[in-house]
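In response to the reviewer comment on reproducibility (Comment 2.3), we provide here a single inverse folding case reported in full, input and output, so that an independent group could reproduce the run without further information from us. The structure tokens appear first.
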């Protein structure tokens, strides 16, 4: 998220739409404005996530609504937390291939 485009201090009179969904890391809140995604927060309860968002964007109007970003973020989190797809697992496989070639 580009801080220049989504500066928390520039949230006056701005509407932020957010969705909360379950992920491999727990609950995740994905928030966006008309300009794009502005927050991805992970927490234990919906109330905690909404309070965190409200604290970060105190002057914004928060609206719970399914947005276009939530499925992309959930797909990314699923991919990133899957051990067979992690960069650590890939780097280990590459190292083993290099050692076998030598």
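Designed residues, in position order:
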């Amino acid at each position: 998220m580009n801080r220049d485009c989504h500066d928390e201090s520039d949230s006056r009179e701005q509407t932020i739409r957010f969705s909360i969904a379950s992920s491999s890391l727990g609950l995740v809140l994905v928030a966006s404005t008309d300009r794009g995604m502005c927050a991805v927060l992970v927490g234990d309860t919906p109330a905690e996530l909404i309070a965190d968002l409200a604290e970060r964007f105190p002057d914004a109007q928060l609206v719970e609504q399914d947005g276009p970003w939530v499925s992309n973020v959930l797909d990314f989190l699923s991919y990133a937390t899957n051990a067979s797809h992690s960069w650590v697992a890939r780097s280990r496989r590459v190292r083993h291939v290099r050692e076998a070639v030598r």
